[in-house]
Amino acid sequence: MRVIWINGAFGAGKTTLSQQLTTDDPRLLMFDAELPGFMLREIVPPPASGDFQDLRVWRRSVADTATALLEEYGRTLVVPMTVVVPSYLDEIFGRLRAHEVLVDYFFIDVPTDVLRTRIAAQSVWPDDPDRDAQVRAWRLEQVARCAAAVSMLPADTVVLDGQLPVAQLASEVLARSAT
Fold first, then answer.
1. What total number of domains does the chain contain?
2. How far apart are CA 144 and CA 148, in angstroms?
3. Contacts of 13 (CB under 8 A, 6+ apart)
4. pTM for the whole structure
5. What is the rounded distance in angstroms from the CA atom of residue 151 to the CA atom of residue 69?
6. CATH number, residue 35
7. pLDDT: is 132 or 91 the higher one?
8. For the segment 98-111, what is each residue's pLDDT rounded down to a tens digit?
Protein backbone atom coordinates (compact mmCIF):
# COMPACT_ATOMS: atom_id res chain seq x y z
CA MET A 1 0.00 0.00 0.00
CA ARG A 2 1.36 3.38 -1.00
CA VAL A 3 0.54 7.08 -0.74
CA ILE A 4 2.04 9.73 -3.00
CA TRP A 5 1.73 12.91 -0.91
CA ILE A 6 2.02 16.16 -2.89
CA ASN A 7 2.71 19.11 -0.60
CA GLY A 8 3.44 22.75 -1.38
CA ALA A 9 2.07 26.21 -0.87
CA PHE A 10 -1.40 27.21 -1.97
CA GLY A 11 -1.10 27.96 -5.68
CA ALA A 12 1.92 25.69 -6.14
CA GLY A 13 0.01 23.31 -8.40
CA LYS A 14 -0.66 20.33 -6.11
CA THR A 15 -4.13 19.61 -7.46
CA THR A 16 -3.09 20.17 -11.06
CA LEU A 17 -0.15 17.79 -10.65
CA SER A 18 -2.34 15.22 -8.88
CA GLN A 19 -4.90 15.36 -11.68
CA GLN A 20 -2.11 14.88 -14.22
CA LEU A 21 -0.82 11.88 -12.27
CA THR A 22 -4.24 10.20 -12.20
CA THR A 23 -4.63 10.90 -15.93
CA ASP A 24 -1.19 9.49 -16.74
CA ASP A 25 -1.74 6.42 -14.55
CA PRO A 26 -5.44 5.54 -14.13
CA ARG A 27 -4.52 3.00 -11.44
CA LEU A 28 -3.94 5.95 -9.10
CA LEU A 29 -6.78 7.26 -6.93
CA MET A 30 -6.85 10.88 -5.75
CA PHE A 31 -7.86 11.59 -2.14
CA ASP A 32 -8.46 15.23 -1.20
CA ALA A 33 -7.47 15.43 2.46
CA GLU A 34 -9.45 18.65 2.84
CA LEU A 35 -12.69 16.68 2.67
CA PRO A 36 -12.40 15.30 6.23
CA GLY A 37 -11.74 18.89 7.34
CA PHE A 38 -14.89 20.14 5.64
CA MET A 39 -16.86 17.35 7.30
CA LEU A 40 -15.45 18.23 10.72
CA ARG A 41 -16.47 21.87 10.26
CA GLU A 42 -20.05 20.61 10.22
CA ILE A 43 -19.63 18.52 13.39
CA VAL A 44 -17.27 20.17 15.87
CA PRO A 45 -16.40 23.75 16.82
CA PRO A 46 -13.37 25.13 15.01
CA PRO A 47 -10.07 25.40 16.85
CA ALA A 48 -9.02 28.87 18.02
CA SER A 49 -6.80 29.20 14.93
CA GLY A 50 -9.71 28.51 12.57
CA ASP A 51 -7.55 25.92 10.75
CA PHE A 52 -9.01 22.41 10.85
CA GLN A 53 -5.48 20.98 10.57
CA ASP A 54 -5.06 22.01 14.21
CA LEU A 55 -7.69 19.41 15.14
CA ARG A 56 -6.08 16.11 16.05
CA VAL A 57 -9.21 14.37 14.80
CA TRP A 58 -8.55 15.82 11.32
CA ARG A 59 -5.03 14.39 11.24
CA ARG A 60 -6.29 11.00 12.43
CA SER A 61 -9.18 11.11 9.93
CA VAL A 62 -6.84 11.80 7.03
CA ALA A 63 -4.57 8.86 7.88
CA ASP A 64 -7.45 6.53 8.69
CA THR A 65 -9.44 7.43 5.56
CA ALA A 66 -6.35 6.98 3.40
CA THR A 67 -5.70 3.58 4.98
CA ALA A 68 -9.33 2.53 4.48
CA LEU A 69 -9.25 3.60 0.81
CA LEU A 70 -6.02 1.67 0.27
CA GLU A 71 -7.41 -1.45 1.94
CA GLU A 72 -10.76 -1.26 0.16
CA TYR A 73 -9.61 -0.37 -3.36
CA GLY A 74 -5.99 -1.58 -3.47
CA ARG A 75 -4.87 1.43 -5.50
CA THR A 76 -2.06 3.86 -4.75
CA LEU A 77 -3.42 7.15 -3.44
CA VAL A 78 -2.35 10.60 -4.57
CA VAL A 79 -2.93 13.15 -1.81
CA PRO A 80 -2.57 16.84 -2.74
CA MET A 81 -2.48 18.68 0.57
CA THR A 82 -0.62 21.60 2.07
CA VAL A 83 0.65 20.65 5.54
CA VAL A 84 3.45 22.88 6.83
CA VAL A 85 3.54 21.96 10.52
CA PRO A 86 6.25 19.27 10.79
CA SER A 87 4.65 17.53 13.78
CA TYR A 88 1.37 17.23 11.84
CA LEU A 89 3.16 15.52 8.96
CA ASP A 90 4.93 13.24 11.43
CA GLU A 91 1.60 12.33 13.02
CA ILE A 92 -0.15 11.60 9.72
CA PHE A 93 2.77 9.74 8.15
CA GLY A 94 3.45 7.83 11.38
CA ARG A 95 -0.14 6.64 11.50
CA LEU A 96 0.05 5.58 7.85
CA ARG A 97 3.33 3.74 8.38
CA ALA A 98 1.87 1.97 11.43
CA HIS A 99 -0.57 0.42 8.94
CA GLU A 100 2.33 -0.56 6.67
CA VAL A 101 1.58 2.21 4.18
CA LEU A 102 4.59 3.48 2.24
CA VAL A 103 4.68 7.26 1.82
CA ASP A 104 6.39 8.93 -1.13
CA TYR A 105 6.64 12.57 -0.15
CA PHE A 106 6.96 15.42 -2.65
CA PHE A 107 7.02 19.18 -2.12
CA ILE A 108 6.40 21.57 -5.01
CA ASP A 109 8.70 24.55 -4.53
CA VAL A 110 7.62 27.78 -6.21
CA PRO A 111 9.09 31.27 -5.69
CA THR A 112 6.84 33.49 -3.57
CA ASP A 113 6.36 36.10 -6.30
CA VAL A 114 5.12 33.39 -8.67
CA LEU A 115 2.79 32.02 -5.96
CA ARG A 116 1.29 35.45 -5.36
CA THR A 117 0.70 35.93 -9.09
CA ARG A 118 -0.93 32.50 -9.43
CA ILE A 119 -3.16 32.99 -6.39
CA ALA A 120 -4.27 36.43 -7.60
CA ALA A 121 -5.28 34.90 -10.94
CA GLN A 122 -7.12 31.89 -9.50
CA SER A 123 -10.82 31.70 -8.79
CA VAL A 124 -11.77 29.07 -6.22
CA TRP A 125 -15.42 30.14 -5.87
CA PRO A 126 -16.35 31.76 -9.22
CA ASP A 127 -20.06 31.84 -8.35
CA ASP A 128 -19.46 33.60 -5.02
CA PRO A 129 -17.22 36.66 -5.48
CA ASP A 130 -17.19 37.57 -1.77
CA ARG A 131 -16.17 34.08 -0.68
CA ASP A 132 -13.66 33.92 -3.53
CA ALA A 133 -12.04 37.16 -2.32
CA GLN A 134 -11.87 35.84 1.26
CA VAL A 135 -10.24 32.59 0.14
CA ARG A 136 -7.78 34.47 -2.08
CA ALA A 137 -6.81 36.79 0.79
CA TRP A 138 -6.35 33.83 3.16
CA ARG A 139 -4.22 31.96 0.63
CA LEU A 140 -2.05 35.04 0.08
CA GLU A 141 -1.57 35.36 3.85
CA GLN A 142 -0.20 31.78 3.91
CA VAL A 143 2.54 32.29 1.30
CA ALA A 144 5.33 33.22 3.74
CA ARG A 145 4.45 30.39 6.14
CA CYS A 146 4.38 27.85 3.33
CA ALA A 147 7.63 29.12 1.82
CA ALA A 148 9.32 28.81 5.21
CA ALA A 149 8.26 25.15 5.38
CA VAL A 150 10.85 24.23 2.76
CA SER A 151 13.58 24.53 5.39
CA MET A 152 11.75 22.06 7.69
CA LEU A 153 10.98 19.26 5.25
CA PRO A 154 11.74 15.66 6.24
CA ALA A 155 15.04 14.35 4.88
CA ASP A 156 13.35 11.96 2.44
CA THR A 157 11.32 14.71 0.74
CA VAL A 158 11.66 15.02 -3.02
CA VAL A 159 11.55 18.73 -3.83
CA LEU A 160 10.03 19.48 -7.23
CA ASP A 161 10.64 22.66 -9.23
CA GLY A 162 7.13 24.09 -9.48
CA GLN A 163 8.04 26.24 -12.47
CA LEU A 164 8.54 23.19 -14.68
CA PRO A 165 5.69 21.96 -16.90
CA VAL A 166 3.15 19.79 -15.09
CA ALA A 167 3.72 16.86 -17.46
CA GLN A 168 7.43 16.89 -16.59
CA LEU A 169 6.68 16.96 -12.86
CA ALA A 170 4.24 14.08 -13.25
CA SER A 171 6.86 12.03 -15.08
CA GLU A 172 9.35 12.69 -12.28
CA VAL A 173 6.87 11.69 -9.58
CA LEU A 174 5.88 8.50 -11.39
CA ALA A 175 9.53 7.60 -11.99
CA ARG A 176 10.34 8.01 -8.28
CA SER A 177 7.24 6.19 -7.01
CA ALA A 178 6.99 2.45 -7.44
CA THR A 179 3.26 2.38 -8.12
1. 1
2. 6
3. 108, 110, 118, 162, 166, 169
4. 0.91
5. 31
6. 3.40.50.300
7. 91
8. 999 999 999 999 99
